[in-house]
Write a structure and sequence with these properties.
By secondary structure, the chain is of the alpha/beta class. The protein is 54% helix and 10% strand. The protein is elongated. It comes from Anabaenopsis arnoldii.
Amino acid sequence: MIPDLFAPVLGQSQAIELLTQGVKQDRVPPAYLFVGIDGVGKSLAARCFVELLFYVETLNLITLQNRLRQGNHPDLWWVEPTYQYQGQRFTAAEAAEKKLKRKAPPVIRLEQIREIGEFLSRPPWEAPRNVVVIESAQTMAEAAANALLKTLEEPGKATIILIAPSPESILPTLVSRCQRIPFYPLDTQSLTQVLTQTGHGAILANQALLNMAAGSPGSAIASYEQLQAIPETLLQDVSKRPSSYRQALELAKKIAQELDTEAQLWLVDYLQQSYWQQWHQPQIMHQLEQTRKFLLCYAQPRLVWECTFIAMLPRRME
């Protein structure tokens, strides 16, 4: 009897059914595409699915789970987007730990796809098949995507799982070679259950964070952690509209000095939710969209925020 390895995955019954039936009927395709917004369980489901694929042969579930969690199973290759720094690659977690300056988002690189090819060139050692999981597959540049396409055409004894926010975010030629597994935003009950079980029940009291999450517990948790990282005094100052030019300029200076670009972009989202709850003024939402646009274009952050808060002065919004 196959154990319920998908128990940790909540609110994704359709995806679980599709994956489970594929194993039960021995009809596992060479490639899957897990699609859905971030933070709804795609990566967790991929880990559970790998356990299911490998368990069929190994049967020693506890040993198998421990090895997979430690990342030392010889037949699993897990790929994440990376930063390039001084000739080395770092995942987002590694870059944060080393406090590396990050000017551009991480991507799946051509050399990472080539490493997948090398990994799949040998037969599996212990499991019935090799498995490759590619997180944030939408970050692949065209050269990397084309290289992966060649691998998908002849994967050998392997299953490749691509994880992306939508089919449109990756090349159609890749989509056509994968079985699509949809993941959906969680309903309120499932979202509450996940946040409570993971010790993040405090998020349920913050409506702005819940609105930003849009049914994604992962996004809710990430936003909560980002919120905690912002200095309390800055958060208090930015929670209300500036009342003078001087206050607007000082607040802009404070944000530019204390927050990196990634945190500033998050702050734009948070302020949109928070300000809308307070004032319901479309002009402010439009101004913050402009702020996001200019920050993404690498405009001078302090100047961007100065323009934002000056435009939000009460007499200018009347």
